[in-house]
Amino acid sequence: MSKINRFKYRMSKERLEMFSDGVMAIAITLLVLEIKIPSHEKVETAGGLYNYLTKIWPSYLGYAMSFLQIGIYWSNHHWLFSFITKTNHVFNMLNVLFLMAISFVPFTTAIFSDFILSHGHFNAAVTAYCTGLLMPVITVCLVVFYAGYKRRLMPATLKQSFLNEQYMKLAMGLLMAIASVALSFSYPVASIVIIAVTFLIYLIPPTPPEYEEGAIIQEQKHH
Amino acid sequence: MSKINRFKYRMSKERLEMFSDGVMAIAITLLVLEIKIPSHEKVETAGGLYNYLTKIWPSYLGYAMSFLQIGIYWSNHHWLFSFITKTNHVFNMLNVLFLMAISFVPFTTAIFSDFILSHGHFNAAVTAYCTGLLMPVITVCLVVFYAGYKRRLMPATLKQSFLNEQYMKLAMGLLMAIASVALSFSYPVASIVIIAVTFLIYLIPPTPPEYEEGAIIQEQKHH
Amino acid sequence: MSKINRFKYRMSKERLEMFSDGVMAIAITLLVLEIKIPSHEKVETAGGLYNYLTKIWPSYLGYAMSFLQIGIYWSNHHWLFSFITKTNHVFNMLNVLFLMAISFVPFTTAIFSDFILSHGHFNAAVTAYCTGLLMPVITVCLVVFYAGYKRRLMPATLKQSFLNEQYMKLAMGLLMAIASVALSFSYPVASIVIIAVTFLIYLIPPTPPEYEEGAIIQEQKHH
Amino acid sequence: MSKINRFKYRMSKERLEMFSDGVMAIAITLLVLEIKIPSHEKVETAGGLYNYLTKIWPSYLGYAMSFLQIGIYWSNHHWLFSFITKTNHVFNMLNVLFLMAISFVPFTTAIFSDFILSHGHFNAAVTAYCTGLLMPVITVCLVVFYAGYKRRLMPATLKQSFLNEQYMKLAMGLLMAIASVALSFSYPVASIVIIAVTFLIYLIPPTPPEYEEGAIIQEQKHH
User: Which residue in A28, A48, A72 is closest to D103 by CB distance?
Assistant: First the structure.
C-alpha cells in the first residue's frame, strides 16, 4: 500500500514539474509578442526602419531582462524540486499561484518597455516592472515555506542548516523586491539598482542540498 | 500479444496526458495576452499610467480567476487519470472537446474583463464568462461518464461507491454551471455568487480513488 | 555498437514525438487568439454585446472545426508512430514541414472566419480555408511515403497489406483535399461538403497495425 | 555519493532538453501570429481577398524560412545533446541565452516580411533578418565551446578530431552570419545569397559523434 502511494506522489511531482516547465517555457517565449511590429506610418515618422529599430531599444532591454529572470526562475525551480520530493493538493495550488505570477511578467515588461522613455511615466513604468518581479518572489516563498514547514514535503534527512540558509536567502530576496516597489514611486533609479543587484545574486549557482549522515540510503526510499 | 496491447494503451494514455498538459499550460499562459498594452493616448486620457493601471483592475481579476480555474482543471485532470487507466479513439476525441472548451476560456475572460464595468454590457459580460466556464464542465462530464460506463476505461476493482460519489459531484457542478448561465441574463450578481461558491468547492482536495480488497495486486497488471 | 545506435534512434523518435506534440498543442491553442476582442465602438455598432457575440458565430465555427482537425491530426500522428519505429535526418525535416503546415492553420482559419459572411469574399475565404487543410495532407503523405518506402523506418514484419491500405487512404484524402481547393474558386459550397465528408471519415478510429507471424518477438528488438 | 550526483546531472540534462524543446516549439509556432489578419478596408484597398492573399507572399516566405531555421536548430540541438552528457549552472544560463536568441526570431521575421517590399526599407529589413539569425549562431557557439573546453561537459572518450571538426563548422557558420549582417547595409542581395547557402549547408545531416576504442563501455558509465 505504502509503495503505491509513494509511486503516486512521485508521478504527481513529475507532472507538476512538467506543467511548470511548460508554463515557464510559454511565458518566456510570449515576451517577444509584446515587441510590436510597427505600421509603415510609424516607421516613416521615426525617420526610417533603421532609426525605428534603434529607437525601441528599451523593448530589447525589457525582453532580455525578463527572459533572463524567468530563465533563472526555471533553473531554480528545477533545483528546488531536487529536495521537494512530494506534493499535495495545497502545494499544487501554491505552485499554480507561482506560475500565475510568472505568466504575468510579459504584461509588466511590455508596460516597462513602452513607457520607460516618456518622462512623465518613468516612475509608473518602474513600479509596474518591480511589481511584476515582486509577485514571483512572494509566491516562491509560499511554495518553499509550505513545503519545508516540519519537513512536510521534504525528506527528514535534509540538513536543517541547509534549509535555514535557503529561508534566509528567500527572506532577503523578498525584502529587496518589496524595497524596489516601495522606492519606485519616488526614487525609481534606486529600484533599478536593486533589481540589477538581485539579478547578479541570482546568477550565482545554487548550492546542492545537504543530507545527514546515512542520507544516501534513506534517500533511495523516497524514489 | 495482450502484454503489447496493454503497453500500447499505457503509452497512449501518457501521450494524451502530456498533450492535455501542454494545451492547458498554453491556454493558462495566453490569458496574459488578453490584457492589452495601452497606447500613449489611452494612458493620457486615463490621467497617467498609475491611474490607467489601477483602472483596469477587472483585467487582473479576470486573469486571476481564469488562471485558477484552469489550474484547478489541470490538477483535477491529473487526478482523473489516476483511475482512468486506458484510452480509446472516442475517448481521445472527447478529451479533445474538453481541451477545446478550456482553450476558449481566454476569449470569454477577455470579454468579461473589457465589458464588466460598462453598465449597459454587465449582464452580457457575465453571460459570456459563465458560458466559458460551463463548457469545460459539460465536456469533463462526457469524458468521465464515457470512461466510467461499465468500467470501459477504468479498472474493474475501482469501488462503485467511489465512482457514484464522483458522478454526483459532477452532476451538481453541471447544474450549478447551467444555473449560472441561465441566471446571468437577468440576475448576473447571482451568477457571480454561484461561480464563487463553485470555485471554493473546487479548492477542496479530491479524494484518492478506492479499490476493492486485493485491488493492489490487480492494479499492477494494468501498468 | 549496434545496441547504442538503436537506443539513439529510439530516443530520437521520442523527442520528435514530443516536439510534434508540443507544436500541435500550441497551434491548436493559438486558434483562440484569432477571435478578436472587439472595441467598445464595434459592440455599440453591432447593437450591444449580446448581438455582437451572436453575430460572430463564424469565428466559433472556424475555431471548433480547426480545433477538431488539429486534434484528429494529433491523434493520427500518435498512431502513425506506433509503426514508424525509427527516424533519420530527412524524416525529421519532413516532419518539420508537416508541423509548418499544421501551425499555419490558425491563419487560414482566421481568414475564413472573418470573411465568410461578406458575400464578395465568400469564395476566397473558402479557398484560403481549404488550402490551409490541403497542406497538412500533402506533408503527412510525404512523411508516411518516405518512412514506408522499402520499409525505411518501419519494421520489416509490418504487413504489406496493412501498409497498402494506409497508402490508399492517404491518396484518397489527398485527392479530396485537392478537389476542395480546385472547386472553391467556382463552387465553394461543394468544397465545404467535401471538407465535412473528409471530417467524418477522419473521425473513424484508425485500425491497429498488423504484423507477420512471429512479429512480436521481432518487434521487441526494435525497442 | 558519486552515483547520485551523476544521476542528478542526467535528470538536469533531460529537463534542460525538454525546456529547450518547449521554447523552440513555442517560438516556431508563434511565427504564424506575425502574419496579420487584415481589416475589411485593407482587403478592399488591395482589390479583394484573393489579391490581398497573393500580395502578402513575403509573409509566407518569411514564415517558411524561419520555421525551417528553427526546425533545423531544434534538430541540431538534439544532436548536440548526444555528446553533451552533463550540465552545470553556467551551461544552463548559456542555453537560456541561446533560447532567448531563438525566441527573438519571430520579431525579426515579421520586420522582414512587412518591410522587404518597400524599397526604401529593403536594406534595413534584410539587416533585421540577418541579425535575427546571427544571434542564435553566436549563442550556440558559446554553448558548444563552453561544454567542449577541456571536455567540461563531454565524455573524455569523445574523439578530439570529431570535436575539432564541429568547432571548425561552427566558426565558419559564425563568420558567414557576421558577413551577412555586415553586407546587408550596402549589399542586401549578397546577404540573402549567404543565408540561402548557409541554409543548404544546415540541411546536410549531422555526423554521429565518434568515440575512442573501448568507448562504448566507458560511455555506459555516463548514463
Answer: A28
What interface predicted TM-score (ipTM) does this complex get?
A: 0.87
Chain D positions touching A40 (Cβ under 8 A) are 114-115, 118
Contacts of B58 by beta carbon, 8 Å cutoff, 6+ apart:
B112, B113, B114, B116, B117
CA dihedral over D165, D171, D176, D177, signed as positive or negative: positive
The pTM (predicted TM-score) of the whole model is 0.89
Q: Write out chain C residues lying below 8 Å of B99, CB-based.
A: 28, 67, 71
Strands (DSSP E) found in chain D:
none
Mean pLDDT of chain A: 88
Q: Which range is least confidently modeled, A142-146, B171-175, C36-40?
A: C36-40
Chain A residue nearest residue B216, CA to CA? A1
CB C11 within 8 A of CB D13: no
Give tens-digit pLDDT for B76-93: 898 898 899 888 888 999
A22 interface with D at CB cutoff 8 Å: yes
pLDDT tens figures, A155-177: 999 999 999 999 999 999 999 99
Nearest-CA distance C5 → chain B (Å): 23
- The three-class DSSP label of residue B211 is strand
Q: Residue D31: closest CA among chain A residues belongs to which residue?
A: A33
The percent helix, strand, coil of chain C (3-state, each to 5) is 80, 0, 20
Torsional sign, CA D50, D54, D55, D61: positive
Binary contact (D216, C27; C-beta < 8 A):
no
CA–CA separation, D11 and B6 (whole Å):
27
Q: What is the pLDDT of residues A107-151, one digit of tens each?
A: 999 999 999 988 789 999 999 999 999 999 999 999 999 999 999
Domain range summary for chain A, segments of one domain joined by +? 9-208
| HSE of A176, CA atoms in CB hemisphere, 13 A | 20
- Partner-chain contact A71 D22, CB within 8 Å: no
Of B21, B37, B203, the CB nearest to A22: B21
Q: A interface mutation test: which of B19, B29, B74, B85 has the most A CBs within 10 A?
A: B29
